Amino acid sequence: MKALKILACAAAPxxxxxxxxxxxxxxESELEMLxxxxxxEGRAPRDTIVELVEKGNDLEVATGYTVANAxxxxxxxxxxxxxxxxxxxxxxxxxxxxxxxDSSTEQARNAVQARVTETLNNFASGAxxxxxxxxxxxxxxxxxxxxxxxxxxxxxxxATPPEVDPPVxxxxxx
Length: 174
Description:
Strand content: under 5%
Order of helices and strands: HHHHHHHHH
Distance between the termini: 108 Å
Oligomer: single chain
Number of strands: 0
């Protein structure tokens, strides 16, 4: 009996420490200041979210905050994508995605939702980090087509860039 009391007294500080370390997230003003500082340093969206998480915030909180405070719709979409990609598993990724959509501004909501849906679909296949922008580069858009599969085929690249007309000389005498 006495051994149990000693064990309970020794374990109490450990439980107290564990419960306080879980709730060691930044206050709203600290989060705001750190986010502004990271933006001023020119940190990439992924690095910004990682830094906010390392300072004690949950991934979904850090992602939601960055999405809500992004300076543009494109940046909000990127923060949402990066937050989902940083999730350790599919379930956590879905929680982060929901928080990102819920935190987005009205103007960014559709774009954020579209991106996180695509990111979640790619998450399980391991292709999470492949950005839409990287897949739609000009070099891929005008890449040579594969073997023709019939008249009028348009899929698979092969589009040719439009011809550039020579500049027309417009002078006052005309």
